[in-house]
Write a structure and sequence with these properties.
By secondary structure, this protein is of the alpha/beta class. It is built from 14 helices and seven strands. Strands 3-2-4-1-5-6-7 form a seven-stranded parallel sheet, sandwiched between helices.
Length: about 350
C-alpha cells in the first residue's frame, strides 16, 4: 500500500467530490426560506454563526436581502440554571400553538464546551412535544465568547426565523449570571424565570436582571413547593415596590400547567398595549441602535486579534508573562501603540 487515497478506495475521489460543500445560492436560499424550509433555515443560521471569512461574506449577502416582517412577537426567557426554562418553554409553547395558528421558533443559547466551543446542553431533548410539531423550529446555539447570555448572531437568527414565517420567536438565554441582561435588547417582552426560595435568599437577587425583566415568574409551584412559591412572590412584590421598573409577578407550574394560560393572556395584552402606544416602535428603534453598537464593538475586537501585524500585542504579552508591571499600564501602552500604527 503506497498511501494514495485512490488505492485504498478507487471511488474515494468521487465520493469526496460528491460531498464537497457546494457554493451557497443566496437567491435559492431566500426562496426556500420564504417557503418555510427549516432545513435551509438551519443551514442559514449555521452560515451566519460561521467564523470563516468566505462564510461571513455570503452571510452578509444573505442578510442584506432578508427583509423580515415586523409583526412577529419576540419573547425572551432568562433565569438561573435549574429554574426549568426548557420545561416552561415546552408548556408555554404548546399554549401558543393551541390558541393560535402561528408558527413558533425557539432559539436556545447554551453554555459553550470549553474544548470545542459547541453547545453543552441541547434543549431539543427536553422539549419533546415541541420538537416533533411541524409548526415548531428549535435551534440550539453555543454562546461562545459572547457576553450578555446570547450568541453574537442571535439577532440575525431571529430575522431569518421571521423571514421564514415564524410569528412567535422565543429566545432562551444562557442563564448563568449578571451578564445575561442583554436579552432585553432583542425581544419585545423579557421573562425572568426563578425557583421558589426563602426570604434570606432575596439578598442574592441580581438587580440588573430584575430591572430588565417585564415579567417575573416563580416556577415549580407544585409538589409541596406551593407555599414557598407564594412567599417568594410576596418577597419579590415587596422588593419591586421600591423599584421604578414596573414588573408583573406570576407563579406557575410547568409540570401541571397551572397559571400557564394566565401568563399567555397577560403576554398577549402586554404586546397589544405596546403596539397601540409608541413603546413598540421606540423599543425596536433602540434595539437596532444597540445591535449596531454591539456589531461595531465585535468587529473591532475581531480586527484587533486577527490582524496580520500582531507585533504590538506580542510585545505586550511578553511583558505580561515576564514582569510585574501594572496591567492597566500595559493596556494603555498597547492602545497607544495601536494608535501610532493607525495614524
Amino acid at each position: 500500500m503506497n498511501g494514495k487515497l485512490n488505492h485504498i478506495n478507487p471511488r474515494a475521489k468521487q465520493l469526496i467530490k460528491k460531498f464537497k460543500p457546494s457554493k451557497v445560492d443566496v437567491t435559492h436560499w431566500l426562496h426556500q426560506l420564504k417557503k418555510g424550509n427549516t432545513a435551509i433555515l438551519s443551514k442559514a443560521i449555521t452560515l451566519i454563526e460561521s467564523k470563516l471569512n468566505t462564510d461571513q461574506s455570503t452571510a452578509q449577502s444573505l442578510m442584506s436581502k432578508c427583509i423580515a416582517p415586523v409583526d412577529s412577537i419576540r419573547i425572551g426567557i432568562t433565569g438561573p440554571p435549574g429554574a426549568g426554562k426548557s420545561t416552561f418553554i415546552e408548556k408555554f409553547g404548546n399554549e401558543i400553538l393551541n390558541h393560535t395558528h402561528s408558527k413558533l421558533a425557539v432559539l436556545t443559547i447554551d453554555p459553550s464546551s470549553p474544548d470545542q466551543g459547541g453547545s453543552v446542553l441541547g434543549d431539543k431533548t427536553r422539549m419533546q412535544t415541541l420538537a416533533v410539531n411541524p409548526r415548531v423550529f428549535i435551534r440550539p446555539s453555543a454562546a461562545g465568547r459572547s457576553l450578555g447570555g446570547l450568541h453574537q448572531n442571535t439577532r440575525d437568527a431571529i430575522t431569518l426565523c421571521e423571514y421564514s414565517g415564524f410569528q412567535y420567536i422565543i429566545v432562551e438565554s444562557v442563564g448563568v449570571g449578571q451578564s445575561e441582561i442583554d436579552i432585553h435588547q432583542i425581544v419585545d417582552i423579557n421573562i425572568l424565570l426563578i425557583n421558589p426560595f426563602s426570604g434570606d435568599e432575596l439578598q442574592g437577587i441580581k438587580r440588573g436582571i430584575n430591572e430588565s425583566a417585564d415579567l417575573i415568574i416563580i416556577n415549580k409551584d407544585d409538589s409541596g413547593m406551593e407555599q414557598a412559591a407564594k412567599l417568594t412572590k410576596q418577597y419579590y412584590a415587596q422588593a419591586m415596590h421600591f423599584s421604578q421598573h414596573e414588573t408583573k409577578l406570576f407563579t406557575c407550574s410547568s409540570l401541571t400547567g397551572n397559571h400557564i394560560h394566565e401568563i399567555y393572556l397577560y403576554i398577549q395584552s402586554f404586546i397589544e398595549a405596546a403596539k397601540k402606544s409608541k413603546i413598540w416602535d421606540s423599543k425596536r428603534k433602540k434595539q437596532r441602535l444597540f445591535a449596531f453598537n454591539h456589531l461595531i464593538e465585535a468587529k473591532w475586537i475581531n480586527e484587533l486579534y486577527t490582524r496580520s501585524d500582531q507585533k504590538p500585542f506580542k510585545q505586550i504579552v511578553s511583558k505580561i508573562r515576564s514582569s510585574k508591571m501594572d496591567l492597566k499600564k500595559l493596556s494603555d501602552d498597547y492602545i497607544h501603540a495601536l494608535k501610532r500604527k493607525i495614524s
